[in-house]
Design brief:
With about 350 residues, this protein is α/β, with parallel strands linked by helices. It has 2 domains: about 150 residues, Rossmann fold (3-Layer(aba) Sandwich); about 180 residues, Rossmann fold. About 30% of the residues lie in helices and about 15% in strands. The longest helix has 18 residues. It is globular and about 65 Å long.
């Protein structure tokens, strides 16, 4: 019996061939032919899925046993159980599953790309730390104003980096921060009193968040979005930070109370912020964040790499071999853990 795989985006032919080479039973169908070229750049899988015709996706998944794509409900209102009655497994080429529709949860297995994005995200974090330490955001403002203002940059070595969410991404940040001579404080839900961790100098449990904030020159958010972490950086948390500290968020936008952050940045109660994620995405054009001069923003691209599709396809093919052999899949996730 054939194993029907549907890539719910315009996957390049070389990657389609790589998937079909896993086993003679594998049949791959893609949607949105030509959308890659229309972007004129290397797009994200979610961009390609959103650009595809919903009717084409619905027709393609009718016989799908496996979906390879950023399945976060690209077809609003679609009864997926009816539309894809043979669906058994969804392999996402991205990490997050916050927006997976509940009608996909049940006997369908979900897998993501595991730690694939951890290193690129950690590079983004270190790049932003260096930007603020060397005063580049302010220098950019002066450059646009044709203004020559000298200042004294800071050294990164000897700084304290506090990481809220010491998982895979946080661990990669810790490694790089230590390589630059930083002291690292790590926080994780499973940490308790007296916990130690090889990647950090100090390990703290979540109930000591304000202690981490007060001690850190750079506060890095890499925690997942859950009922417990939503709004974890509120007005009180921002008040606990030092006035020369910088907040960096590569976790999820709702980890931060955005109005409170905007107020803290406007009043220079913290030195700055580097944000790759936001409460609403795309960030609305009327958001006050656009006009602040002590902020660095990117449009949710920290996980990006020019080898994205190559690595995601490698992960999928390895999992597809396990699926065919009846072995447990790697990087299984439970979307219900982030619902609500």
């Amino acid at each position: 019996m054939p194993i029907n795989v549907v890539a719910v985006y315009d996957l390049a032919p070389e990657f389609v061939a790589q998937i079909e080479a896993v086993d003679s039973s594998v049949r791959v169908r893609t949607v949105g032919a030509g959308t890659r070229e229309a972007f004129g750049r290397l797009p994200y899988p979610s961009e390609l899925t959103n650009a595809a015709d919903p009717a084409e996706i619905e027709a393609a998944i009718r016989d799908a046993e496996v979906i390879f794509g950023p399945w976060a409900g690209p077809l609003p209102g679609l009864d997926v159980r009816t539309a894809a009655p043979h669906l058994r497994w969804v392999q996402s080429p991205i990490v997050g599953y916050e927006r997976v529709k509940p009608d996909l949860i049940g006997d369908v297995q979900f897998t993501n790309i595991g730690e694939m994005s951890s290193a690129p995200i950690a590079e983004w974090v270190l790049g932003c730390i260096l930007m603020f330490a060397k005063g580049w955001p302010a220098a950019g403002v002066d450059q646009r104003a044709h203004r020559w203002t000298r200042y004294m940059p800071r050294e990164v070595a000897g700084s304290t980096v506090g990481i809220v969410g010491l998982g895979s991404i946080g661990g990669e940040v810790a490694k790089r921060a230590r390589a630059l001579g930083c002291r690292v404080i790590g926080m994780r839900r499973s940490f308790g009193a007296g916990t130690s961790h090889p990647l950090v100098d100090v390990a703290l449990p979540p109930d000591r968040l304000h202690e981490l904030l007060a001690a850190s020159d750079y506060v890095v958010l890499t925690a997942p979005l859950t009922a417990q972490t939503r709004g974890i950086i509120d007005a009180a948390a921002l008040a606990a930070m030092r006035t020369d500290a910088v907040l960096l968020n590569v976790g999820r936008g709702p980890l931060v109370d955005e109005p409170a952050l905007i107020e803290a940045l406007r009043e220079h109660r913290i030195a700055g912020a580097a944000l790759d994620v936001f409460s609403r995405e795309p960030l609305p054009a009327d958001s006050p964040l656009w006009d602040l001069d002590n902020i660095v923003m990117t449009p949710h691209i920290a996980a990006g790499t020019d080898r994205y599709y190559e690595r995601a396809t490698d992960i999928f093919c390895a999992n597809l071999r396990r699926y065919i052999a009846g072995e447990p899949l790697e990087f299984l996730v439970d979307p219900r853990a982030t619902q609500g």
